[in-house]
Each structure stands twice: as structure tokens, then as C-alpha cells.
Batch of 3 targets.
Target 1
Amino acid sequence: MEFLDGPPSVHCAGLKEGSIHLSPASSITFAQKPGAFVLSPEICTSCSFEVRSVKLFAKRPIEELDGCKIRMTAQSMTSVTLLRILLEERYGLRPEYLNGAYQDSDDACLLIGDQALEENERRRFNFNYDLGSLWLDWQRLPFVFGAWIISKSALQPGLEKTLVNYMEATKRSVENFKANPKQALDKWLAKYPVKLPRSVIDDYYTALDYRFTDERKESLKLFFEYAQKKGLVQEVPLLEFL
């Protein structure tokens, strides 16, 4: 096996172009190439309440962002798609979406991952909104930010057995992590240091929930339906599992 580092956008591109067989990638990727992938039936990246690392930071309340400039992240199309669905379908807003680095003239920005966690600590914006919480409050379902997406090209003799063994090992790894997160995070931070208090990191990983429950599968399908309605994906894919 070969492991590749990178943000969700890089992994999603690799899945779609065929250079990556498996990735815990942005969930929208599954719908961007219907029929090309299967999902792990047991593992995803979700949360029961706040996800904390996918946030809209704004100078004014979210209800007042109609026609305003919102800077979007380039790291995750799932987060971009979710924000558009929330703003346009839940709040009835039509903002101006901008790419590139945040400018002082912007009214709001969408940040994910370390950037969002770091912005939480800076407190430069008067308002911030956790996208996982906004979806949960609206749909009464936990949002699925990431799915373990597997290319069907990996389901062939010589690869499938390795794939299945790897997914079983991953499941055990998640269980071990939940049982003893400190040991795992110590190793991770030694390789990937971040400028955040350790308490923030511990709280963040406590909030994540990796169980791909029936409720979360229902939520993912609903997300795809909204994305298709808005023309952000061509069709609602059938959820196929390994």
C-alpha cells in the first residue's frame, strides 16, 4: 500500500481520476462520479452535535448575509456545497460566493480543518456558525462530512483481499483511538504539529463520531438530493457499500 497526504480536495481529485483506490474523502465526491465507487458501510466522519472544524465566520448575523460577499474554501467541496444549501434553502439567501484568500472587504468566510479551529481561537469575527449544527437543527439528522470512498477498480482479484483487510484494520484502529485518544494524538501531533492548545485538539476529536449509522446514511442521501436540486451534482447516486 502507498499512503498519500493531502487536503480533501486532492484526495477527491485522485479518486475521480483513478490514481487513488481508497480515501476518507469529502462525501460529495461519491455523487460527483455516480457508479464509480462503493462506501464503507461502517465508517464515516460525522458528529453528534458540533463538528467545530467546518465553520462560517461572519461580520453580521447569518440572516443578514443576503447579497453579501462570502469567501469559500478551496479545500472541501462538501463544505462548500453544504453552506450553499444552508444559505439558499434554509435561509433563502443569495450571497455572492468568492474564491481565493479572505479579504477585509468580505462579509464572511468558510473555513475548514485547522484553519477553522485556529480562527475559533483568534475571535476576529462577531459571528460564527458550525455547519454541522445548522444542518442538525434544520433536518434533525447528523451531517456526514467525510465518507470512506472506495473505487470499484479496487474490487478485483489481487486487490480486494488487501482492501478488505485494510478496512478491518481501520475499524479496529478507530475503536482503539476512541478507547485511548491521548496516545494516538501524541503520535499524530509529533508528525503534524499545529498551533492550537492541546485542550482544543482533544475536544475536537471527542466531538467526532465515526459510526456510519442508518440515520447518517439517510442524512447523506438527503444531502445528495439537495445538491442535485441545486444543480451541484447531476444525479442522486445509489448508495452502494463494500
Note: The radius of gyration is 18 Å.
Target 2
Amino acid sequence: MKKHWYDYLWAASLTYLILGFFNILFAWLGLLCFFIPLIISIVSGSKGYCNRYCGRGQLFGLLGGRFGLSRKKDIPKWMKTKWFRYGFLAFFLLMFFQMLWNTWLVFAGTRTLKQAVTLLWTFRLPWHWAYHGTLLHPGVAQFAFGFYSVMLTSTVLGLLTMLLFKPRSWCVYCPMGTMTQLICKAKNK
């Protein structure tokens, strides 16, 4: 099978995580992984991003499949249900809007910049080495810390799911996949 340029987007996902580790402002690049799937699903009415361009799904496929880090077990049926997928999407959106609210508070000057990444929405990890100030407002960095937290958390959840089940099991309940599926259903009615 001939390889295409988009078959190597797993490297972009890995590069994103590495860059954000060393300079948190690179976390802004993650917005591409947020807007491109939505635009593709709105324009085409398909999940083309998930099926072809998702570097994170490719990374899980590579690690779990080619490198054999997956148990290759079926994901539990309850994780495939609508209530779980929509519930996880609602929870994820709630955490996303909380991150936006914290960013707004820093922009408004009512809260100071917190140089920490929150893993699994619970564990605050100091991340001081990744930001040394810029000419930009601290709110720009606050958004980056928050968005990197979201991206790192979803990557960790995906890795855990990959290890326990099939390589791309994360894709079953990925919030972006659920959102694009809802857009496609609405568009194709």
C-alpha cells in the first residue's frame, strides 16, 4: 500500500507534545486539532479528519499495532454507548470552558498566571521551565497551559485505553470524534 503525506501525521502529534513540554506557547498549535476536524465535518459532512488525518489516532495505531503495546482486546460495550460518549463529551466541554474561564480571569487581571499543567483534571504539575515570559499578555500563556493540559490529558487517556484495549480504542469516545459525528448527522439529515 502506497504511503501518503497524511500517513505521517502521527509525527505532528508527537512533535506537538514535545514542543509544549519545552515551550508552553506551542500549545496554541493544538487549536489546529480542534478547528480542522470541525471544519472538515461542516464542509464535507464526513469524518474525514478522524479517518485519515488524525495524528493522535495514528500515533495510537503505531504504538499499539506496529510496536505491540496494545492488548488488542475489545473495548467494553459501555464505553461505546451514547450515554458514555455524550457524557464524556459534556464533561470534556465543561473542562474546556473552565479552562477558557481561567484564561479570561488572567486576561481580566483578577487572577495571576498559573504555570502548571493539570493532568487528568486533577493533578497539578508544575511546568515552570516551559514559560519564561514574553511580550504577550500572561493570559496568552494561561490559555496555553490550559490547552496543553487538555491535550496531554486526552493523550494519556488515549494511551491508557490503547494499552488496555485495541490500539485506536480512544477513537470510540474521543470528544472531537463525537462532535464531528453529531455535525455529520445534522448535516446529512
Note: The longest strand covers residues 116-119.
Target 3
Amino acid sequence: MAKNNNRDLATNRKARHDYFIDDTLEAGIALKGTEVKSIRKGRANLKESYGIIIEGEVFVEGMHVSPYEQGNRFNEDPLRKRKLLLHKSEIRKLKRQVDQKGVTLVPLRLYLKNGRVKLELAIARGKKLYDKRDAIAKRDSERRMRQARDY
């Protein structure tokens, strides 16, 4: 029987700072064997990655997966385009939303679910500079109130 563990392997913390997250969905990801081993060791980075839709298929670009040490010739290009595994209806829904102005696909986290690597993909709108400043100010004020309450 498979273990039900949702262990985070990589997160994109900057995404929540740079984007308003409208919706999220879970996608499988097509990986090679050495990539899976490397990701399980926590050697993946989502910082500069984004999702694109090409001819009815969804890909994640810019996701860096470090080469596996014992992988030798079987290692793939660390920045290659990786296909996301979604149902056709989900892809159509994503395509409609991405066609709107200012909406993009942003990977939020990479995690294990029942032994398989999954990607949490967000439908997001970019924040303006003043939105980011508002978020920082709100967070700072909440922190100050919490500290004042604790004393």
C-alpha cells in the first residue's frame, strides 16, 4: 500500500510576493529517472519558472533540476522544458484564462504525493510595485501589533 505523504520538495516563495494567486491546480509532471532522483534529494528550483501552453499541451519552463551525481550520461539538460500532465478540459480552461490580459501560469511548489512528483500550478495576475509595497506595509504592521500584544 502506498504511503500518503505530501512532502514539499521545492517551493516558489517569490511567486506569492510578485503575483495575486487566483486559482491553483495540481498537475503531474513528465520527468526522466535521474530527474526524479535529483528532485527527491531537493535539488530543484522553481524561482524563475513559468507555465506555457503550446498546441494544447502545458509545459513548465525555467524550472532548474540539478543533474544527479550518479546519473552520468543519463542526466538531462537542467533547464529543459517539462510537460505537465493535465486533462484536456483543464488545459482548455487554463488556455481561456491565460488568454486574458495580465494572467499567467506560475508554479508554486513541487511535492510528492503517493510517491509521485506533482506540481502545484497557479493562475496568477502580476502585482504592481505599489501592490507589493502595500503587502509589505500590512505585514509589518501586523508584526508590530503581534509584538506589542506579546509584551
Note: The chain has a mean pLDDT of 84.
